[in-house]
Backbone:
């Protein structure tokens, strides 16, 4: 038998108590799940995140960590779905687009991955990791000049960014090999003028 409320104040009070209990329960479940996640107990952590989302479907941290956990277990389609949900919940959160970009890259959706990194960078212009990973995608797309620029930006933000230096060096070598091939076969140079930076040293002194 359902309770009959006599006035709106009582209704609001009951709803508030229910929400508080749900919030407390979901917080406790989430904290347990996070602890297990950090210990590498993925299956148990996943089950607890699912319980949290049953109580609070829009629990942003549970959505995000479910995506991260899914990616760690190489279930990239599931991770993509969670990260898209995270973006729905917080459309101005750069990290959500970054995470989505990583997963889309793993799924071979290179154009979508690039767009996701572009959005992360638009929201957070100093996001060095986003520039670096966008450079990786551009490299795979054979947009070598654009890749160099993205790596350079990452390095300008983090001067000792080893991975960015390394991958930029690989692209620089590819550009040099392309130039040699074009000269051998007497083809017109098609490298864009704004890519003259490929002659610069790979590492600064």
Residues:
């Amino acid at each position: 038998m359902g309770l009959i409320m006599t006035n709106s104040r009582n209704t609001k009070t009951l709803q508030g108590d229910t929400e508080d209990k749900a919030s407390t329960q979901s917080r406790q479940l989430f904290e347990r799940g996070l602890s297990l996640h950090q210990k590498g107990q993925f299956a148990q952590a996943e089950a607890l995140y699912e319980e949290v989302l049953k109580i609070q479907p829009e629990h942003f941290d549970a959505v995000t960590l479910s995506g991260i956990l899914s990616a760690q277990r190489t279930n990239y389609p599931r991770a993509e779905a969670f990260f898209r949900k995270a973006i729905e919940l917080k459309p101005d959160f750069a990290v959500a687009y970054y995470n989505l970009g990583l997963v889309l890259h793993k799924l071979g959706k290179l154009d979508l991955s690039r767009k996701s990194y572009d959005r992360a960078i638009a929201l957070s212009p100093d996001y060095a990791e986003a520039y670096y990973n966008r450079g990786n995608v551009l490299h795979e797309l054979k947009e070598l000049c654009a890749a160099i620029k993205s790596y350079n930006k990452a390095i300008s933000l983090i001067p000792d960014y080893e991975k960015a230096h390394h991958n930029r060096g690989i692209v620089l070598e590819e550009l040099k090999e392309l130039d040699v091939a074009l000269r051998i076969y007497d083809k017109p140079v098609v490298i864009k003028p704004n890519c003259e930076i490929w002659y610069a040293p790979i590492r600064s002194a």
